[in-house]
Amino acid sequence: MSFRARHLLGIDHLAPSDIVTLLDLAEDYVALNRRTVKHSDALAGLTQINMFFENSTRTQSSFELAGKRLGADVMNMAVAQSSVKKGETLIDTALTLNAMQPDLLVVRHPHSGAVNLLAEKVNCAVINAGDGRHEHPTQALLDALTIRRAKGRLQRLTIAICGDIAHSRVARSNLLLLGKMENRLRLIGPATLMPAGAGEMGVELYEDMREGLKGADVVMMLRLQRERMDGGFIPSEREYYHRWGLDADKLALAAPDAIVMHPGPMNRGVEIDGTIADDINRSVIQDQVEMGVAVRMAALDLLAHNLRAERGRAATGIMV
């Protein structure tokens, strides 16, 4: 097995072989999840704690379901409503967690780098469920699995990532992953919503959506993150939809068999037309949700395997 990471904090540290290993195992869990009996004992005896410093019903539910289907004891901590409100620091939280002896820790945090800091202070395996504008690795992995299943491969595709890229950790993780797999990447959106240094990322930049979509195999739409905007990033939502919202006319410029993706939740009529989102012949948005559970099961399984191996070596005094 090529996947030897202790934590899953981002895509940056993963080799292409790690990504393939994780996606291949996720395929097994897609099959398991479609069976009548959906349980495995891969995490039997282990404790998984989901700590969400930001609300996210979709991602938290996906991780909770993944852990339970693998037989873990799963606990959700509503951190945003408890100790942090009373002034506890992230380090205090880490020490408290360590005392509970968890094996797997799933963390979402509004600040970039906070999950990495937490991982340095605890003794268990940590999965980044999204930190600030930094990374959202399991979203990129589930997107990759969805693309591979829909297109039959994960290389040599033209992939357009469209919309609010500046505020998107999903875009960052996808750029890293899809770039490692040798795809042609395009970023499409208004200049005000492009990340700093976008011109140095080795991708193609388009402000004109119609030009950027020409011949694309994959069209990945991003949510307009109004809650992260404190200024005039767009003239109006009506104007934004007119220029950068995905509708049938713009989609017709992509490849005839192009698929449409969105990480959710969607702003219908802002970044995407509702009829496009619901078109089962083009949209794979519901497939992304299904693949999310399978990818998170694979990530939990691989990290648990490595954790058990590490503890086994420590118990027998073997140094690595």
Automatic annotation (TrEMBL):
EC number: 2.1.3.2
Assigned GO CC terms: cytosol
Entry-linked InterPro entries: Asp/Orn_carbamoyltranf_P-bd, Asp/Orn_carbamoylTrfase, Asp/Orn_carbamoylTrfase_sf, Asp_carbamoyltransf, Asp_carbamoyltransf_Asp/Orn-bd
Pathway this chain belongs to: Pyrimidine metabolism; UMP biosynthesis via de novo pathway; (S)-dihydroorotate from bicarbonate: step 2/3
Domain Aspartate/ornithine carbamoyltransferase Asp/Orn-binding residues, every copy: 157-302
Keywords: Pyrimidine biosynthesis, Transferase
GO molecular function: amino acid binding; aspartate carbamoyltransferase activity
Residues that, per the record, bind carbamoyl phosphate: 58-59, 108, 136, 139, 264-265
Domain Aspartate/ornithine carbamoyltransferase carbamoyl-P binding: 6-148
Pfam families, per the entry: OTCace (PF00185), OTCace_N (PF02729)
Biological process per Gene Ontology, one example term: 'de novo' UMP biosynthetic process
Catalysed reactions listed for this entry: carbamoyl phosphate + L-aspartate = N-carbamoyl-L-aspartate + phosphate + H(+)
Record keyword DNA-binding present: no
Subunit details: Heterododecamer (2C3:3R2) of six catalytic PyrB chains organized as two trimers (C3), and six regulatory PyrI chains organized as three dimers (R2).
Name under which the protein is recorded: Aspartate carbamoyltransferase
Name of the gene this protein is made from: pyrB
